[in-house]
Design a protein that fits this description.
single chain, Alpha-Beta Plaits, four-stranded antiparallel beta sheet, 3 helices, 6 strands, globular
């Protein structure tokens, strides 16, 4: 099963907090302050895209939603604290 990654650059603190809460409510876990991950595919990616497009200011903010195969995350290289661990059931554990 693939994963959905959401990365964002949101300048407004209130809007950023709202996006964080929405992502958590949709089952995402924080990897870094502006990077969230959840198990899912294109269906979840489309759902999160639709949910977040209502919350961001398109003239100032940037949000990237991508579907990533599990193998890509397993091969990722991390400098410093690795907050992303994949267990045998393909869940993201932070």
């Amino acid at each position: 099963m693939p994963f959905v990654l959401v990365a964002y650059d949101i300048s407004d603190d209130k809007r950023r907090a709202t996006v964080c809460e929405r992502l958590k409510a949709m089952g995402f876990s924080m990897v870094q302050k502006s990077l969230y991950v959840a198990r899912g595919g294109s269906s979840l990616a489309k759902d999160v895209y639709r949910a977040l497009q209502r919350l961001v200011d398109r003239s100032r903010d940037s949000v990237v939603v991508m579907v990533v195969p599990r193998e890509v995350l397993q091969k990722s290289m991390v400098i410093g604290v690795n907050r992303l661990v994949l267990n045998e059931r393909s869940y993201a554990i932070i």
